[in-house]
Amino acid sequence: MGKILPMLPDPHATKQAVIEIADLHKRFGAHPVLQGVSFTAHQGEVVSLIGASGSGKSTLLRCMNLLEVPDSGRIVIAGEQVAFRNDRKGQTMVADPRQVERIRTRLAMVFQQFNLWPHMTVLENLIEVPVRVLGQARPQAIELAETLLAKVGIADKRHHYPAFLSGGQQQRVAIARALATRPSVMLFDEPTSALDPELAGEVLKVIRNLAQEGCTMVLVTHEMAFAREVSSKVLFLHQGRIEEVGTAQQVFESPSSERCRQFVNAQF
Ligand code: ADP
Ligand code: MG
Prior knowledge:
Blueprint: E1 17-28, E2 31-42, E3 46-50, H1 57-64, E4 72-77, E5 80-81, E6 84-86, E7 92-94, H2 97-106, E8 107-110, H3 122-133, H4 138-151, H5 167-179, E9 185-189, H6 197-212, E10 217-220, H7 224-230, E11 233-238, E12 241-246, H8 248-253, H9 258-267
Parallel strand pairs: 3-10, 3-11, 8-9, 9-10
Antiparallel strand pairs: 1-2, 1-4, 4-5, 6-7, 11-12
Helix pairs in contact: 3-4, 3-5, 4-5, 5-6
This protein binds adenosine-5'-diphosphate (ADP) and magnesium ion.
């Protein structure tokens, strides 16, 4: 009889895949921006996307929540595969607009520039989508909104308009607004790049708390120390390809790609 080899425990054996991306391609005109990107994010994982400006990080995030439609490849969000088809001009589109709506409620995005609705108070920003799009009852939506505002430390500003808040406060409201739809995954696109270091710190603290609570997220960031601290998986993107993937320790301390090593060294 052969020796029985001990099985290595698979850390994801019981964890569901929340995002599955396979062989994603996207070009703008003649410029190939994503050239065969594949990765999976499991429930509770924090996946960081790092790479030089122009490497395709935002495009990859935008493809996930269908703000951009990829030219080819497969996207599965919370078990649902996005159905693409080609129109008569040969352009790829999402087959079903209702699917776009559904997918967008599962992936909530936080942008560099906050993007709060300026004519609505903080509280109204939070309940708009739950009440008007998802059809939730207003009192319940307000209750959740207030809980979330307390969580991000902004409860006392709920009746203020965004223009009267600091950038850090606005971004924390944007995070609370994203959480208000109870998404399966949070997408962050350089959430602190528009902020002074001090204000960035208060936003990173909120993201760190979410990570510790097991919130699944994909994070594009230039905050390398933060990415190293919170990520369960780090992807280094170079010219639209994943050049390096691994745990934070692998990617930051012993990358196999020379380009990744140079990029990481230049950041610290
Ligand atoms: P990153 O977020 O890593 O800086 P992006 O995904 O924003 O990179 O951009 C990757 C490349 O795609 C860049 O060269 C950018 O100029 C180009 N690009 C992004 N969006 C568009 C667009 N809507 N139209 C044309 N080119 C675009
Ligand atoms: Mg970007």
